[in-house]
Write a structure and sequence with these properties.
With 95 residues, this protein is α+β, with helices and mostly antiparallel strands. The chain contains 4 helices and 6 strands; from the N terminus they run H-E-E-H-H-E-E-H-E-E. Bound molecules: iron/sulfur cluster (2 copies).
Length: 95
């Protein structure tokens, strides 16, 4: 049985350089007012990471467009979320 990482490797992602379709509205809010930082554990693609200084970094390359981060940040509503532009984003089923 394939692991999740192996399944993700079968997807392809077309990066829209310079136009990330998701962004964090207020980075300071993540660092100073969000104690759970649930986005860093709920994103299935690992797009959100917490650095040692408490800063949360978002890199949307590999985003599966599942919408989890938009919903999980319900208390602070700190995630700006849009679909990728046409022709960009995830392509499924390569395995
Ligand atoms: S859950 Fe929202 S507020 Fe908290 S760290 Fe993630 S993006 Fe920032
Ligand atoms: S939409 Fe899903 S895969 Fe993309 S960054 Fe949010 S949680 Fe991660």
């Amino acid at each position: 049985m394939l692991k999740v990482e192996e399944k993700l490797f079968q997807d392809r992602y077309r990066v829209d350089a310079g136009h990330p379709h998701i962004s964090i509205r207020d980075a300071d809010l993540c660092t100073h007012r969000c104690s759970e930082r649930q986005c860093t554990v709920c994103c299935p693609a690992g797009c959100y990471t917490e650095e040692g200084n408490g800063k949360v970094v978002l890199i949307t390359d590999g985003c599966l467009e599942c919408g989890t981060c938009r919903i999980i940040c319900d208390e602070h509503r700190n995630v700006e979320w849009e679909w990728p532009r046409g022709g960009f984003g995830i392509l499924f089923k390569f395995g």
